[in-house]
Design a protein that fits this description.
The protein is an alpha/beta fold and 185 residues long. It has a single domain, classed as Rossmann fold (3-Layer(aba) Sandwich), CATH 3.40.50. 31% of the residues lie in helices and 26% in strands. It has 6 helices and 12 strands. The chain has a 7-stranded mixed sheet with strand order 6-3-1-7-8-12-11, with helices on both faces. Strands 2-4-5 form a 3-stranded mixed sheet. The protein has a two-stranded parallel ribbon with strand order 9-10. Strand 9, helix 5 and strand 10 form a beta-alpha-beta unit. The radius of gyration is 14 Å and the shape is globular.
């Protein structure tokens, strides 16, 4: 275990329907590197996770409602996928604004699978290179993104990945990106 992320806190923005492995594995990678995570969602309480979008996969406790969060409190942002999760997030003005402000701040944002739908709604993908789950790529292109089919695409502060199959490469890339940012105050 390294301490690359000692003193750093990463926000994870997710809602009901989040793909379990896309929340749990990146969170574990941050913790293994010495950092902390806090789950933000649309409401306090807990969110329901899924396996393969359909099967219930337990719950995860929400640390704070996104409406009560400030990007100044976090060193990085994770946007996991699952098809239902980003669909719920992109219809919430507070969640969309949080994602937009985070990208525009220059702090690193890791997004996997369908999570890019939230960034599309936030209007921050035009001219950026990203990868995603295949069914999201047309939406990314229509929003002006340069879409690639790679395990991980890094474009400035955006780190994107295609699917759970790419989690080892994605987790390594986000830890590296989060380690480069000064700790939040």
């Amino acid at each position: 275990m390294s301490n690359m992320l000692q003193g750093k806190t990463v926000a994870i923005l997710a809602a009901d329907g989040v793909e379990r492995v896309e929340l749990v594995h990146p969170s574990a990678a941050v913790h293994q590197a010495g950092g902390q995570t806090e789950l933000l969602s649309l409401r306090n309480g807990w969110i329901q996770m899924r396996d393969n979008d359909l099967d219930p996969a337990g719950t995860f406790t929400v640390g704070r409602a996104v409406a009560d969060a400030s990007i100044d409190d976090y060193d990085g942002l994770l946007l996991p996928g699952g098809t239902v999760n980003p669909d719920k997030l992109r219809t919430d003005e507070g969640a969309v604004a949080f994602a937009r402000d985070f990208v525009e701040s220059g702090k690193p944002v890791g997004v996997i699978c369908h999570g890019a739908l939230t960034l599309i709604e936030a209007g921050v993908v035009a001219g950026r290179t990203l990868t995603s789950y295949p069914s999201v790529r047309t939406d990314l292109r229509n929003a002006g993104a340069n879409v690639v089919d790679e395990e991980v695409a890094v474009d400035g502060n955006l780190i994107s990945s295609r699917s759970p199959d790419d989690l080892p490469a994605f987790c390594a890339a986000i830890v590296k990106a989060f380690a480069k940012t000064p700790a939040a105050t």
